[in-house]
Structures are given as structure tokens and as C-alpha cells.
Amino acid sequence: MNTAKRTKTLTLLGVLIAIQVVLTLVNVGLIPLPAIKATTLHIPVIVGAVLLGPTEGMILGASFGIISVITNTMQPGLTSFVFSPFVTVGEQSGNLLSLVVAIVPRVLIGLNAYWSFKLVSRFDKSKIFSYAVAGVVGALTNTIFVMGGIYLLFGQQYAAATNHAFSELLGVIITVVAANGIPEAITAGIIVPALSKPLSMIFRFGNK
Asked: According to the model, what pLDDT value does residue 33 have?
């Protein structure tokens, strides 16, 4: 990578991390809901992945995960223990597996968004549809892997915290995926192309 391209890459990476921080500070990055926090922080991750590449996308995903840990620690909600090892809610406490739930799915956003973009862009010269697919895939990666991680690693505790029997938990997870994940995916499918196309022209990224 030449110096000019490296500078552009680092500049946009810094801008996207700053956007994540600003979204969090104005309380629209992680929006508290009764059972989980809705998010917009996946959008900078996806944009960074399709414009800069999988490594940068995973860096932005890790940033998202770290912000999630900090936010859930500083502003704990009913289920914040699944995202922070430093939180106890009632009888439920977080542990090191909380870091897995908070960070690993967010890193995978960048990876999955990039490769879905690369696959679809082979057949989409305008790249608009490719950006939209990456947005949808990235958003669903976040929701499905986070909720799947909660089910596998904190199932009993999450069920207890949300006043459900463990036998009902799979239905609860599916409801959260439908209620939060689908709107987030649709939103990302619209916003990611709207941001990525002009940014690719401004920074002259070819997405090759």
C-alpha cells in the first residue's frame, strides 16, 4: 500500500471510529430496549469493510464491541451482564464469556459484510446493490450471532433476567431477531449504499 492510499485509509478509519463514538455519546449508538439494546453502530463497521477491506472492517467491529462493553458497564440495563464481565444485575453476573458475546459477533460483521460485498459486486457494476447486500448481511450477522451467543453462553441467566422459562428462550430469541434484527437490516441496506457510494468517490476507493 502506497503512502497516499495508507493515509486515506487511516483517515477514513479514524472518521468511522469517531462516528461510532459520537453515535454512542448522543445515545443513538446503543438504544436501550427492555430485553436488549438496539444499535446503529454496525453501519460504520459495514461501510468501513466495503470501502477499506476486511481487516479494517474487523478493527471497526472490535471498536463497536469495546464500546458495547463500556456502555453496558457504565449504563447497565436488565441484560447488560451478557455484554460486560463487570456487571451484576440481580443474581446474574457477567464473566469473561461476556466479552465473547460483545466483541466476536461485531468483528464478524466486518468480515461477512466485506465478503458478501465482494461476491455480489462480481455481478453488479454499479455496486449499489452490492453495498445494500453488505448492509443487510452485516446487520443480520450482528443480531444473529449476538443472540445466538447469548442463547449458547448465557441461556439460563438470560431467561431468568427476562422472566422467562428456559424452554421459552428460543422463542424469545427469535422474537428479538425479528423485532430488532429485521428493521436494523433494512435500515443498513438503505443507509450503507447512501454513504458508501459518495465516500468511495470522495476518497477514490475503487473497491477492487
From this structure: 66
